[in-house]
Amino acid sequence: MQSDPKKLERIITGYTWQQVTIGHSEASTFLLKKESHSLYLKTQAINAIEPLQIEQEKMEWLQGKLAVPEVLYYGEDDKKEYLLMTEIKGIDASDSSHNTNLPHVIKLLAKGLREIHSISVEHCPFQRTLAVTIQEARERVNKNLVDLEDLDEERKGKNAEELFQELLEKRPKDEDLVFTHGDYCLPNIILHHNEVSGFIDLGRAGVADRYQDIALAVRSIAYNFGDQLISLFLKEYGIEEVDEEKIDFYQLLDEFF
């Protein structure tokens, strides 16, 4: 672990800072720019429930396996963690500039997900199976960390305990385990020159059911572009028979995070 604040200071000297407000996270994210060069810095409280050190470890494990940011610095002081990364060139998939070419964007989203799911899990140290994530959901309920103001429309008005009981009742009997992004939403997929240039926000990546990603992708496509493009995404990914129960379950599970 690096904990040399002077090293961080040396790297970012001369950069201008702009806070990035898209997305929901405990971390604060800043875009640092100097001439044509850009970096990203995440900071968050040292006692946050999802440590930045875990995201650092996952990005370093993924180097050479997937197009993800390179970690330039990780460190912590008495109050905060700091994670400095290179920029993935391009524009995220939720940006309105893609609206003139939506079918192609949807095909790229499916292609990107197939690429992530093709990573070998044989020696993957990061487990996000239901045994892990349901326990984390329970802890979040106990600590009052479930954001009831940000529930999907069909679950508004329910309390955290009701949602957790529903989660247990709907738990799938099997898991089709692959390497997953963990939060495969459009803002986390970067497009450049009509191709996927990389993936960001990998703190929840690891071995899980492929529907962990499929469910959140479906919800994000519907939110950004409408329901009419979901069938194209599923077809391009390679799903012939959709497991609607798993889509519902993994969207419910995401309410806790």
Polypeptide structure, described:
The chain is α+β, with helices and mostly antiparallel strands and 257 residues long. The chain folds into 2 domains: 5-86, 2-Layer Sandwich (Phosphorylase Kinase, domain 1), CATH 3.30.200.20; 91-254, Aminoglycoside 3'-phosphotransferase, Chain: A, domain 2, CATH 3.90.1200.10. The protein is 36% helix and 21% strand. The strands form 3 sheets. The chain has a 5-stranded antiparallel β-sheet with strand order 1-2-3-5-4, sandwiched between helices. α6 crosses α8 (244-254).
Topology:
Layout: H1 5-12, E1 16-20, E2 28-34, E3 37-45, H2 52-62, E4 71-76, E5 80-86, E6 91-92, H3 102-117, H4 130-142, H5 160-170, E7 177-180, E8 189-192, E9 195-199, E10 206-209, H6 211-225, H7 230-237, H8 244-254
Antiparallel strand pairs: 1-2, 2-3, 3-5, 4-5, 6-8, 7-10, 8-9
Helix pairs in contact: 3-6, 3-7, 4-5, 6-8
CATH topology of the largest domain: Aminoglycoside 3'-phosphotransferase, Chain: A, domain 2
CATH architecture of the largest domain: Alpha-Beta Complex
Radius of gyration: 18 Å
Number of strands: 10
- CATH superfamily caption of the largest domain: Aminoglycoside phosphotransferase (APH), C-terminal lobe
Q: How are strands sequenced across the largest beta sheet? A: 1-2-3-5-4
Low-pLDDT windows of residues: none
Percent in helix: 25-40%
